[in-house]
Specification:
The chain is α/β, with parallel strands linked by helices. The protein has 2 domains: 73 residues, Fe-S cluster assembly (FSCA) (GMP Synthetase, Chain A, domain 3, 2-Layer Sandwich), CATH 3.30.300.130; 245 residues, Rossmann fold, CATH 3.40.50. It contains 11 helices and 12 strands. Strand 6 and strand 7 form a beta hairpin. It is globular, with a radius of gyration of 21 Å. The chain binds adenosine-5'-triphosphate (ATP). Adenosine-5'-triphosphate binds next to helix 3, strand 10, strand 12 and helix 9. Keywords: ATP-binding, Hydrolase, Iron, Iron-sulfur, Metal-binding, Nucleotide-binding. One of its GO terms (molecular function) is ATP binding. InterPro entries: FSCA_dom_sf, MIP18-like, Mrp-like_CS, Mrp/NBP35_ATP-bd, NUBPL-like, P-loop_NTPase, YlxH/NBP35.
Amino acid sequence: MSVTREEVLACLKTIQAPSGVDLVEAGLVRALSVTGGAVRFVMEVSSPDPFEPAKAEAERKLAALGCAPVSIVMTAHSKPSAPPDLSPTRKAEPAGPEKIPGVDRIIAVASGKGGVGKSTVAANLACALAAEGRRVGMLDADVYGPSQPRMLGVSGRPQSPDGKIILPLRNFGVTMMSIGLMTNEDQAVVWRGPMLMGALQQMLTQVQWGALDVMIVDLPPGTGDVNMTLAQKAHVDGAIIVSTPQDVALMDARKGIDMFNQLGTPIIGMIENMSTHICSQCGHEEHVFGHGGVSEEAKKLNVPLLAEIPLHLDIRLAADGGAPIVVSKPNSTQAQAFRSLAKSLIESGQA
Ligand SMILES: Nc1ncnc2c1ncn2[C@@H]1O[C@H](COP(=O)(O)OP(=O)(O)OP(=O)(O)O)[C@@H](O)[C@H]1O
């Protein structure tokens, strides 16, 4: 008997995970394959025992639906498989930008200069969007300094049960994949030309992203290969440029905006990070890198200023500690800046 993918998902939605939400909503159903009556999928769990009843229920209900054979593999059962091979298997074929299946929108977070807080903004924005109920993915394409695993508190190698599809990791409601999870932390990553293009292509097309409302892409700083490749391979709906108010960072941001204009990627707006410094001891406010520079530049370039994020110790401690401030101190003034940003992007239909 033949069943559809939709019927299988509807059936799995009637089964509760131990957390109380259904298996699909909990993001546990990965690599689902429905061929005729044969159903196979992976349940991504940290420890199998609590999930055995849900697995048995799924097997029973799918059999009652007419599915045969039903094969459910819990990832914790299997030995960690070898990391997916990222070496290019064939020459990259010239192909135009494509929609990633299941992904509604792609937002690139970029900066002209390194160290201006682009990854911090990307991580907080992703978590803030997830907290608003959006289905969010994070593709950490910062090949030269991938920091999303640390910022989003995930570790371990992503699994690839069939050696082709890569299972992403998930934390704080964000489905994430990073080039940093495929390399040793201390290993210098020297991605060049075709190898780099192949790695990005694989992260876009071979990762089991599932259905996402928005995918955030944390780009490397500057105007290099990765930014170009992303725009060539995927349909990027918009770019957010992060800068500090300093002239030097602004000049680099201008180059970044110019590049996106040339690539035909719309600029969603600019974010001034490290805008003012508020002393965590006495609350005194000072402008370490100046203030308002990004706002002036945004006016000149006729792009919106999306947010001004203060320089605050808690933002650094949270990001570097593996739980962005939006998650660790959601009601703080600092988190509010990111939460308002997420809300305004949702309201304007951009995320
Ligand atoms: N608003 C902020 N307040 C305090 N610390 C911040 C803030 N934004 C970023 N930081 C800290 O600054 C450091 C650099 O930030 P981050 O890694 O996000 O920069 P980046 O622009 O992504 O750098 P690169 O592109 O070189 O990876 C981190 O330690 C981060 O915690």
